[in-house]
Write a structure and sequence with these properties.
The complex is a heterodimer of chains A (334) and B (602). Chain A has 334 residues and is mostly helical. Chain A has two domains: 133 residues, no CATH class; 193 residues, MetI-like (MetI-like fold, Orthogonal Bundle). Helices cover 78% and strands 0% of the residues of chain A. The longest helix of chain A is centred in the middle third of the chain and has 38 residues. Chain A starts with a helix and ends with a helix. In chain A, 43% of the residues are buried. Chain B is α+β, with helices and mostly antiparallel strands. Chain B folds into three domains: 144 residues, Dipeptide-binding Protein, domain 1 (Alpha-Beta Complex); 125 residues, 3-Layer(aba) Sandwich (D-Maltodextrin-Binding Protein, domain 2); 249 residues, Dipeptide-binding Protein, domain 3 (Roll), CATH 3.10.105. Chain B is built from 18 helices and 24 strands. In chain B, the strands form seven sheets. Chain B has a seven-stranded mixed beta sheet with strand order 8-9-10-1-11-22-12, covered by helices on one side. A five-stranded mixed beta sheet of chain B has the order 18-17-19-14-20, with helices on one face. In chain B, strands 4-5-7-6 form a four-stranded antiparallel beta sheet. In chain B, helix 9 packs antiparallel against helix 13 and helix 10 packs antiparallel against helix 14. Chain B is globular and about 80 Å long. The relative contact order of chain B is 0.14. The chains are: A mainly alpha (334), B alpha+beta (602).
């Protein structure tokens, strides 16, 4: 147990150090981007303004409000205070909404789209990859080129293909929005059905891309493991094929689980292309707009969430690895 | 039916979303034949409903501009870009100036009332202005240099007292009279509630989302989330009084789906999910010519709409060689404008053969303001490589070292033309400008920074523009009650040079005392003949000095309609009097079009 304690302690220390570094970088990096975010607000405010002093007054007013003229250290203290306050301060691009309000209204759409799509794509991709490695021959000959095709297809191209075929031509699914253009959100089954129908194209656009990548990864790992010495040795010993395959796929699965954790950790970043092409609500396009508009508070908050989710996902993974991978225990005991 | 685990999880997720986003509204669907759908106005979530603030991102409800948006809040008068006139809305009859043009007086229509049924009074108008000034709102910042005060002399009568200069003359009568058609009247009683809520704090007042706002317009807020915004008709709207419209507008709901890009909006327009499209739909004629859809524009042929603004390429007059008028003229006349109009605008702009360049937009009212013959020899339609080469040769600006590029005093003429990245029509136009340079031996390359960087650089007029901004695109004013004076001022006046944050114009740093003098004099002038002479002189100066050059004409609003559900939208020659302008039935006098709509299948 002492070996495990050291292992977990080390992981916790690294988790805290990484989080602190990421927290500081999340603050500094957006502010190093060129451009003045307050100018964007003044652009909106100055519409219809014909006097030079009026425009100047508005610019100064908002520069002071967002503190973009303050020293970096002072801005950092305000940022920390806003984070602990829980609202992350005002969004510059969507002022006077708070960053927390902006995120709250769209994050559920992103999670509800991304999480099932990642899980379904991961399960289907790994299953198909494993079957392809095990069955080989005809199945592999068909699956491999299809997987390579899908995994190399840019996400926006997949979304457009599905949109044109199933949305515009066949009219099997709506082309845009998170729910019917003629609906107001409510708790009726009619609305739920509308959400499900609108969910289909963005969901499958992500799943198909994910399947391709996962299948190729799993196939390679499984083929490698199937040719490993321990498999040959087990066969010599007369261990049943089913038992061997269980070990093979368990070992091949380890890097795939790492990939899954990575995908889940970064999913808050959103399926940008699916969101834009299907005009689907979500955080991805909000982040893109924030980056383009230099909305520091919103960029910092979203990247902080992504950072924390990734760190937590990997931390949990490390804990699980410690339990399921005997090599770690062995290494800690040395 | 037995549900598997995945289905249950999916449904739970869906319920999670609905639980998070569902508001308390009584209605679940918007009946199609009672709803008018828009696109191209609202590009993000609505932030608030506060008429004192400019940062609501609420395109359906709040836009205090030359053609003010009057669906929810109302102005005393409505501007009509087609005839250049203003018509009473909350006001009763035309406004009048006193003899010395220091006070402007108008009355409030006795029939006008708020959504809470209390009457709109002159005191509401006066208190609105007082609040703007007290809390230093953007409206106050824009007008305090021209308006001294607004007072109510009785419950119906409003007097706007103009700010006077040292000589006792109104500083700018044009901007004073523009106030009445560009700024909302806000209810005094609600304003006092707001003031109490924010405790007199100016920042809090402007940041208040004003969910409880009282309005006077024909529609009121109904629903808004990240996907759409919906307004609902106020069936108690005062405007159904015989003194105004005499009836209610036809659609019960006005809805705007929030699309993430133009392509999604275009797809919805084609599918009949949008009735009025205020976005650039490329090759708009293909909707009816190739696809046979019931889609149309204000004009049946190119340019399909009425041009109002002048997207313009500005010369950085501090760049080497661009301080030379011959170089500027050569570049400007060499540009292939027909290609820009055909490609970047897919012919949704008049050509410079149809509407010769000046400082005026293509509307008949503005075109009549200058003497065409007097400046005809200065106007160019473009793609004139021969003349461009000839004037450069004549000025001794030739390729003396044989590298294929011209030099001025031994230094090669090389420039970067730029506009924001992702503004595809502007980028296409800038590429054509660069191509023209190569035709005449001037090396012009392109660069497209992000908007956040671009805007910061271009609007900083207190220092020379940095490298990379030799020729750059910006917009101009469109149609409005102060035009074309305001547009010309923003393209030529040196008063903006030296500003830390210049969102007005003349970004290239042009300075000409003669032009400044004319710009200052025009607002005081009332004699039409003298005005025409002054405007003609300004056009002559502009086309001679060429501190910038217009690349295309752009409509005030794109106005493409799908007549699957609603019909009788405004079109050229529709017989309406006054004519309803193609401004999506929400801006200025175009709101009159809402009362003319009828259902295709009643």
């Amino acid at each position: 147990m002492k070996a495990y304690r050291n292992y977990y302690l080390k992981k916790i220390v690294w988790f805290v150090i990484t989080l602190q570094c990421a927290f500081i970088l999340n603050f500094i990096l957006p502010r190093m981007m060129p451009g003045d975010p307050v100018a964007g607000i003044v652009a909106r405010m100055a519409q219809g303004m014909s006097n030079a002093t009026g425009v100047q007054a508005v610019y100064e007013q908002y520069t002071e409000l967002f503190g973009t003229d303050k020293p970096m250290l002072e801005q950092f203290i305000i940022y920390v205070r806003n984070v602990f306050h829980g609202d992350f301060g005002y969004s510059i691009s969507q002022y006077p909404r708070t960053v927390a309000d902006v995120i709250k209204s769209s994050i559920w759409w992103t999670v509800a789209l991304q999480f099932p799509a990642i899980i379904v794509g991961w399960i289907l991709g790994n299953t198909l990859g494993a079957l392809s490695a095990y069955l080989r021959k005809g199945f592999d000959n068909v699956l491999l080129p299809i997987s390579i095709f899908f995994s190399n297809l840019p996400a926006f191209a997949m979304a457009i293909i599905l949109l044109v075929i199933f949305g515009v031509s066949l009219k099997w699914a709506p082309t845009s929005g998170g729910y019917g253009f003629d609906m107001i959100p409510n708790n009726s089954w009619e609305f739920v059905w509308s959400v499900i129908v609108h969910y289909q194209l963005p969901f499958w656009a992500i799943v198909l891309i994910t399947i391709g990548g996962q299948a190729i990864g799993m196939r390679s790992m499984a083929i490698y493991e199937l040719n490993a010495d321990y498999v040959k040795y087990a066969r010599f010993l007369g261990v049943k094929d089913r038992k061997i395959i269980m070990y093979v796929f368990r070992n091949a699965m380890l890097p795939q689980i790492t990939g899954l954790a990575q995908s889940i950790g970064t999913m808050v970043g959103g399926a940008l292309f699916a969101e834009i092409i299907f005009s689907y609500p979500g955080l991805g396009s909000t982040i893109l707009t924030a980056v383009r508009g230099g909305d520091y508070p919103l960029i910092s908050a979203t990247t902080l969430i992504i950072t924390i989710m990734s760190l937590v996902a990997f931390f949990v993974l490390e804990i699980l690895y410690g339990l399921i991978d005997p090599r770690i225990k062995a290494a800690q005991s040395e | 039916m037995k549900l598997n685990r995945f289905t249950i999880v999916a449904l739970l997720l869906v319920m999670l979303i609905t639980g998070t986003t569902s508001p308390s509204v009584a209605q679940d669907t918007l009946p199609r034949n009672e709803t008018l759908y828009f696109n191209g106005q609202q590009w993000g979530s609505v932030v608030g409903w506060n008429p004192y603030s400019n940062s609501n991102n609420n395109a359906m409800a709040i836009a205090q501009q030359d053609n003010a948006r009057v669906l929810m809040f109302e102005t005393p008068y409505l501007y009509n870009m087609l005839d250049g006139q203003v018509y009473p809305l909350l006001a009763d009859g035309p406004y009048t100036w006193n003899d010395s043009r220091t006070e402007l007086t108008f009355s409030i229509n006795p029939a006008a009332h708020w959504s809470d049924d209390t009457p709109v009074t002159a005191e509401d108008v006066a208190y609105t202005w007082a609040t703007h000034v007290k809390y230093n709102t953007p409206t106050a910042a824009a007008n305090v240099d021209y308006i001294a005060d607004i007072v109510a002399t009785d419950p119906q009568t409003v007097v706007i007292q103009a700010k006077l200069n040292d000589a006792g003359v109104t500083v700018n009568p044009l901007l004073v009279q523009a106030y009445v058609s560009t700024n909302y009247v806000v209810q005094k009683a609600w304003t006092q509630v707001l003031e109490e809520r924010v405790g007199g704090d100016a920042t809090a007042l402007l940041a208040d989302p004003a969910e409880d706002v009282v309005a006077s317009g024909p529609y009121y807020k109904f629903f808004a989330d990240d996907s759409k915004v919906v307004l609902i008709r106020d069936d108690n709207y005062w405007g159904q009084d015989a003194s105004m419209w005499g009836k209610l507008p036809a659609p019960k709901y006005l809805a705007h789906t929030i699309f993430k890009d133009n392509a999604a909006g275009t797809t919805a327009l084609q599918a009949g999910e949008v009735d009025i499209s205020q976005q650039f739909n490329s090759n708009v004629q293909s909707f009816w010519l190739e696809n046979g859809l019931p889609i149309s524009t204000y004009l049946p042929e190119a340019p399909y709409g009425i041009g109002a603004s002048l997207p313009t390429a500005f010369f950085n007059l501090n760049s080497y060689g661009l301080d030379n008028a011959v170089v500027r003229r050569a570049i400007a006349i060499a540009v292939d404008y027909p290609t820009i109009i055909a490609n970047a605008m897919t012919n949704q702009s008049a050509t410079f053969d149809q509407v010769p360049r000046s400082l005026m937009n293509p509307t008949a009212g503005e075109q009549a303001l200058y003497d065409h013959d007097a400046v005809a020899e200065l106007q160019w339609a473009g793609n004139d490589i021969e003349t461009a080469n000839a004037i450069l040769d004549e000025a001794g600006i030739v390729d003396s070292d044989g590298d294929g590029w011209r030099e001025l005093d031994g230094q090669k003429l090389t420039y970067i033309a730029t506009c924001p990245n992702g503004w595809s029509d502007w980028q296409a136009a800038i590429e054509v400008v660069a191509a023209a340079g190569k035709e005449i031996g001037i090396d012009i390359t392109t660069n497209f920074p992000e908007w956040s960087v671009y805007q910061t650089v271009v609007t900083k007029s207190d220092a020379p523009l940095p490298e990379g901004y030799d020729i750059f695109m910006m917009w101009s004013d469109g149609a409005g009650p102060t035009q074309p004076w305001s547009r010309i001022r923003k393209m030529l006046s040196s008063e903006f040079n030296g500003m830390t944050s210049n969102w007005n114009g003349n970004w290239g740093g042009y300075s000409n005392p003669a032009a400044d003098e004319l710009i200052q004099a025009i607002p005081q002038e009332t004699d039409p003949a003298a005005l025409k002479e002054m405007y003609t002189e300004l056009v002559r100066i502009y086309l001679t000095d060429i501190p910038s050059f217009t690349l295309m004409y752009r409509p005030q609003s794109f106005h493409t309609v799908n007549e699957s559900v609603w019909t009788n939208f405004p079109f050229d020659g529709d017989g309406t009097n006054p004519p309803v302008p193609p401004l999506d039935l929400m801006d200025g006098w175009s709101v009159a079009g809402l009362y003319n709509l009828v259902l295709v299948n009643p």
